[in-house]
């Protein structure tokens, strides 16, 4: 059953400051809507519960990509097409470029925003594993303050994030210091395109004299939130890649994974495939 659009209240402020003021002043919380690729599906299906919506689409203060000498900052309103077409992201952050290419169709990528992908907080979302591997930092704003937060601390529990009703995600910042890292990203789904992941892994590793000096592993669909795998990372630090090391790392991944059974896959399959993807990455080193 489709929703009755007359039952919804939508405001579309022209500036970020105006949007933040509306959030601050409203006694009832507004739900932000950017590209709408998630919320409009729920609206069309008659299951969109929020009745008060505030449009962030195409706010200039949210749709930008800025490159400095040591970092890149991506506005939360940047679309996946923006990300895929940016030369610095393509050159220096291939995990993010690949993840952006997985997100729905080209039409979806023209509308969907990276901020929406993060705040929607799906454990199976495409970009979080890459952002976790790159150790991204979030900038969150309200009408009265601005704060920064490591992305790894943003997801609190299933569909719950560290974002107050009067706050918006403004941008994502990643340091430009991964030129010496080997990269890996893989998504397993029902189809090669336009599929929600059964499991996905994004990883970075830097070697020194044959040993793993640094490693970061982000995962989707292995826990109730997008997650780093710290126990698995710790099992590999300062180790050479040997069959024994790989076996220990697989065991660590299995121990810290808590996937679910759902319509797309089973917990057993997700854990087994994630361990196999980890092994594939380590063998590539």
From TrEMBL:
One of its GO terms (molecular function) is FAD binding. It holds the Pfam family CO_deh_flav_C. The lineage of its organism: Bacteria, Pseudomonadati, Acidobacteriota, Terriglobia, Terriglobales. Residues 1-179 form the FAD-binding PCMH-type domain. Keywords: FAD, Flavoprotein. Signal peptide: none annotated. InterPro entries: CO_DH_flav_C, CO_DH_flav_C_dom_sf, Diverse_Substr_Oxidored, FAD-bd_PCMH, FAD-bd_PCMH-like_sf, FAD-bd_PCMH_sub1, FAD-bd_PCMH_sub2, Mopterin_DH_FAD-bd. This is CO dehydrogenase flavoprotein subunit.
